[in-house]
């Protein structure tokens, strides 16, 4: 039984399984293993300086001749990064005082200083993608501006856009995206939307309800993301009309993922109810494992700094937590599928296992449906 879908034909991959280009987690080692097993691996381009991104692409090409992708966030808060000078004094003080509680516990210097402005990297990263021509450009958290899709197509690059609403799926398809990734509310990581809604609700529709609506709304292949970690999830997504699945959380807990050990350990130990949707980690809505940082921040009612400045302000806390092996103050993006993840295999084994399980699920289906 093959699992060939329109996605496989379009991207020239063997199996309709895509590994998310997770920031700071998906490097060449992870991508190459996924590609070797017949899936589509995607390199993380978020916050990667252009020369490093180019090196990552070259390294991937040295290790595999199979198709792979490069992921970038196109969020407006990065283009250019928001100027920290625009933050009101009172907001800055409120956020820093909250972070100072964590700093004191970790024994690092407290501060009420304004964070430095982040480097402006997105346009340079897009240039690297266009120069290097990876087979797939995977865009998230923002809009494909007019011309960018054409630039990709002229160079033979397929464009995959991740959205979390039906309306955004229509817009991305009308903008020329070759593949739409429908991100359900179960998904780990940031909600794929531009800007920041006052509440995350509209971007957290579950995949079971979102996916068939996106499939009905667009003509291009749709990939399901969120809550999928095994062969049952693949078959369910295909039954709902998807042409493939994209997994994040499952690949965090693999040998080749760059996630630190404390994070992988928490993923392996956590149940699905352990995640929360929070803006305290980065300033944008994201699903992550709840810990003392996310809980106490929410309970305090302290202000959250603007998108991504919150992350840079908290970075010293995260780095100290990492150094001290303290997962309570470290950001650990993960989706509700975390409760399905109990082992630490190689990334290629994840792809192979999902296909094996999906075959077993399909052959058991007739027995499960009793005719009366
Ligand atoms: C740790 C982590 C980091 C992520 N980073 C990114 C990213 O940089 N770019 C992106 O497009 N999606 C990112 N995502 C979201 C995934 O693309 C995807 O929507 C999600 O992982 C699917 O749900 P799942 O986690 O249940 O598999 C991330 C997800 C996780 C868990």
Describe the structure concisely:
The protein is of the alpha/beta class and 372 residues long. It has helices at 6-11, 28-36, 50-63, 89-106, 122-132, 148-154, 166-174, 207-217, 231-239, 249-252, 261-269, 292-300, 309-324, 347-368; strands at 17-19, 41-44, 68-73, 136-140, 158-163, 179-183, 189-190, 222-225, 244-247, 275-278, 286-289. The protein has a domain at 6-81 and 118-257 and 340-364: Aldolase class I (TIM Barrel, Alpha-Beta Barrel).
Topology (SSEs and partners):
Blueprint: H1 6-11, E1 17-19, H2 28-36, E2 41-44, H3 50-63, E3 68-73, H4 89-106, H5 122-132, E4 136-140, H6 148-154, E5 158-163, H7 166-174, E6 179-183, E7 189-190, H8 207-217, E8 222-225, H9 231-239, E9 244-247, H10 249-252, H11 261-269, E10 275-278, E11 286-289, H12 292-300, H13 309-324, H14 347-368
Parallel strand pairs: 1-9, 2-3, 3-4, 4-5, 5-6, 6-8, 8-9
Antiparallel strand pairs: 7-11, 10-11
Helix pairs in contact: 2-3, 2-14, 3-5, 4-13, 9-14
What ligand species are in this complex?
A: flavin mononucleotide
The CATH topology label of the domain at 6-81 and 118-257 and 340-364 is: TIM Barrel
**Secondary-structure class:** alpha/beta
Strand content: 5-15%
CATH top level label of the domain at 6-81 and 118-257 and 340-364: Alpha Beta
Total helices: the number is: 14
CATH superfamily of the domain at 6-81 and 118-257 and 340-364: Aldolase class I
Q: Rough shape?
A: globular
Strand sequence of the main sheet, in spatial order?
A: 1-9-8-6-5-4-3-2
What portion of residues is helical? 40-55%
Largest sheet: 8 strands, parallel
Cα Rg: 20 Å
Poorly predicted parts: none
How many β-strand runs? 11
Mean pLDDT: 97
> Span from first to last CA?
28 Å
Under the CATH scheme, the architecture of the domain at 6-81 and 118-257 and 340-364 is Alpha-Beta Barrel
SSE string, helix = H, strand = E? HEHEHEHHEHEHEEHEHEHHEEHHH
